[in-house]
Design a protein that fits this description.
alpha+beta; four-stranded antiparallel sheet; 4 strands; elongated
Amino acid sequence: MDKIMAKLTVYFESPFWVGLYERNEKGRYAVCKITFGAEPKDGEIIEFLCLQWKNLVFSPSVQCCLPKEKAKNPKRMQRLVQKEMQKGVSTKAQQALQAQREQNKKMRKTVSKAQKETEKKRKFVLQQEKRKAKHKGH
């Protein structure tokens, strides 16, 4: 049986509140960064996830393994939750977000390069037309 884990961490990254949604399914890890702006309430977060689930853009998935869960003492669970809240963003999430940034950067570069090339061709054509117009004697 496949196990799916999802975790949403909301933290303050000056000047905005940011949510880091991590999901782990079938041994693949992906992460999505959500910028909230003002401090979100619990209801707003749940509503956002329900309404905007389709629009979330996750990083390219990375191969990883799911940790095996044992039954834990409730007090220990509370301590772990407090520790997680103090820790903040995980390194694995940072690496996945960095991979997503790199991918977006490559896409932007190719698009801007194509735009520059078309602009260069357009200017060349205009220059040629000007030359022909000068020789016509208008």
